[in-house]
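Final report, Chapter 2: Outcomes

The project's central promise was a pipeline that accepts a single protein chain and returns its three-dimensional structure in a standardized token representation, suitable for archiving and comparison. That pipeline is now operational. To close this chapter, we reproduce one record exactly as it appears in the project archive, with the input sequence first and the structure output second.
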Amino acid sequence: MHTVSDVYPADLASETNFFFDGEQAENSTGVSLTDESFVSLEPELPYQRDSEGTIIKGDFLQLQLPAEITLKPSVIKKKKDKGKKSGKKAPKLNVFIEFEKGIDLEKIDMETVRLDGDLSPLDRKPAKIGDQDKDGMPELKLQFSRSALAAKLEKGQQTISLDGELTSGLPFHGQAEILVK
């Protein structure tokens, strides 16, 4: 009986290259691809091609890392702007980001992080990393303007998204529910 396995060139091992070992596709840090890792698994047909017949890469099979996000508080209120608290004293929304094992939270490119499409973190410096939910996995804590988010949203239960990229250019995406009163 013979056992055969692929050997991948060491210079190709990276956070953005995934190799299939017969059971799963994994990168150099041990992150495995799942269906949640892809923006879309359904291509728009026919494929667009350039003048030489080469397929033009589009949205099909674009990789994105799934992120688990937790919002605190999970309920925010729409208030009329009374001008009482602004700047550092204004109410903040804490957003905790958790990735699967093997992805370094310190590699998040803070310039790319956006909440609900266009809200940037209040502080772009590396934020606090800890185990906020006590599940053994670290989370990165970011703060956003609570009033800016509330102003964008309708009252009721809303799904908001958090998007960004790692310093390698690999995008991530997560969603969470928030109640707006």
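Archive annotation: The longest helix spans residues 146-152.
This record, like all others produced under the grant, will remain available to the consortium after the project formally closes.
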